[in-house]
Amino acid sequence: MKILITAPIDFLPDNEKLLNSEKVIYAYKSKPEEILKLEEEHKFSGWVCSPCPTYSINSDILSKFSNLKILATPSTGSNHIDKTFLEEQSISFFSLKGTDVVNQIYASSEYTFTLLMMVLKKCNPAINSVSQGKWRKSEDEFRGHELIGKSIGILGYGRIGSNLSKYCNAFDMKVYAFDPYVRISDDWVKVYSSIDSMISEVDILAPCVHLDDSTKNLINRQRIFSMKQGSFLINTSRGEVIDEKALIEALESKHLGGCGLDVIHDEFNISNKSNDIIKASVSNKNLIISPHIAGLTFESETKAQMAAINEVFNFLNINLKK
Predict the structure, then answer these.
(1) Is this model's pTM higher than 0.85 or not?
(2) What is the C-alpha to C-alpha distance for residues 237 and 154, in angstroms, rounded to an integer?
(3) Which tops the pLDDT comparison, 273 or 157?
(4) Would you say 215 and 241 are in contact if contact means Cβ atoms under 8 Å apart?
């Protein structure tokens, strides 16, 4: 049995065991057509995919795998994978969602707070100004906001939402939250019984939710424009959670004071030249977009990759040492 690994493992401790194993074919950054050529040769039983591939692992690709028993992603999100097809073909699926290891991963939580800081402190235009040879020539563009006393509304109080809450509380911010599936007991949090009652009261809104049918377009046009004038939106969950067209309108009309995104719609088929939200970030200095890097740390990826790899090896009853 052979295992395909397209997740990055070059930086993992003791990665030689994996890279030199006869059971493993390492094909990080391979294109779909290259992966399918490898499948023709090896007939993979297991696949540990990239948590953020540049393509969708859809039925067109998966249908070419004739012997696949398990597919694992070292991420909690799984919208890059056609799980319906896996189910139909009785192929086992593993993600970090609901596992113990996610509680040991802090990268995405830390980055969400970092993005919040960057937007409110206007770090992006200030840094770009220096690289363009300017030095504090336009103070009005760079004047930001203090965090103390600001209210943040957190949608979803799982790992990322609850960690973000702690960071914000440490900065003396007012923390509001809504999550119908979690009993929130942190005494610094004001808990709301509905999304809409919370959204209109906060200075900053941060959706920290998984993408499914109930959260797709969760932050729609009506909710964006019901936010306070000059408020901020931070999203590191999934791009499809937000109505991007309405978001652009809210930024251009100055209804929103700023926005930080680490995710956008349809990341797997992205063209920077034609993508509307990316084009908007060029002209709107209050819109910061990073390329889905919230979880991109040595520590978090090591934990995540090894959890997915061990799951596949254990499922196939393969001893990594052999």
Answers:
(1) yes
(2) 12
(3) 157
(4) yes
